[in-house]
Specification:
Radius of gyration: 18 Å
Distance between the termini: 28 Å
Number of domains: 2
Strand order of the largest sheet: 2-3-4-5
Order of helices and strands: EEEEEEEEEEE
Number of strands: 11
Strand content: over 45%
Largest sheet: 4 strands, antiparallel
Helix content: under 10%
């Protein structure tokens, strides 16, 4: 039987709010079933989804880049980056390779999460200030 790998934030049950950012010009229509009162049309698309305060003073933003799902942790001044914990279930192995990338293996397939990058925003411009670390705990 084939297993599935699941990734999730290992957050202590903080109060988070979900918001959509950067509305796109496209929309979708959901015409499911025969009951037209349950249909939805003109549902807007967004470039990013932000979960606010997943850890104290830390948001996570999900978005697409080069047809890949990516995410950023956005820390408020004084927030503790060590609070960020990701949990992986269903994996055969989880390891950090020599480049600092996280490699998650399941059913003979590997998923690679590139080594974290650390940057500051200067207005709208990202200025890289170093690389983070991927620990295996």
């Amino acid at each position: 039987m084939e297993r599935r790998q699941k990734s999730q934030l290992d957050a202590p049950g903080t109060e988070e709010a979900v918001t959509a950012d950067e509305k796109l010009a496209s929309t979708s229509n959901y015409l499911l079933g025969r009951n037209s009162s349950a249909w939805s049309s003109g549902v807007p698309h967004y470039a990013k989804v932000r979960y606010s305060n997943v850890y104290d003073g830390i948001d996570v933003v999900y978005y697409s880049a080069d047809r890949q799902l990516e995410y950023d942790f956005v820390l408020a001044p004084g927030a503790n980056a060590d609070a960020i914990q990701l949990a992986y279930s269903g994996a055969d192995s989880v390891r950090v390779d020599r480049n600092g990338d996280l490699v998650i293996s399941v059913n003979g397939q590997s998923l690679r999460q590139m080594r974290p990058k650390v940057y500051q925003l200067d207005g709208e411009v990202r200025r890289e200030i170093g690389q983070g670390r991927a620990d295996r705990g």
